Amino acid sequence: MTEQHFERIQKRNMGLLKYLEGESEPKEILNITSTDLDHLKSKAFLTGIFYRFDTQSDLVKIDIATKGTVLIGMKSVIECFEEIGN
């Protein structure tokens, strides 16, 4: 995995997040998010990370902007490793 590889995926994920911020229909947000996650082979791993951020007291206390940045970064790392494995 290279820095450029990570940055490319991170940029795509940040673009998707910005797009979702402008979407007002909850059903459309769910559809877009589902479509984005469909290709992910490590859904259980990412779900476990999300779960920890919702249940661990120290992680729950993190402000939403920082939490979002960290979670997008984690998703990007997972996607990088999955692309390397293909």
Stretches where pLDDT is under 50 for at least 5 consecutive residues are: none
Structural class: mainly alpha
* Shape field: globular
Percent of residues in β-strands: under 5%
Kindly give the count of domains. Answer: 1
Helical proportion, percent range: over 70%
Largest sheet: none
Report the total helices. 5
Nearest-integer average pLDDT = 90
The CA-CA distance between the termini, in Å, is 13 Å
**What oligomeric state do the depicted chains represent?**
single chain
Number of strands: 0
Whole-angstrom Rg:
13 Å
SSE string, helices as H and strands as E: HHHHH
Give structural notes.
With 86 residues, this protein is mainly alpha-helical. It has one domain. It is 84% helix and 0% strand. The radius of gyration is 13 Å and the shape is globular. The protein starts with a helix and ends with a helix. The model has no long low-confidence stretch (mean pLDDT 90).
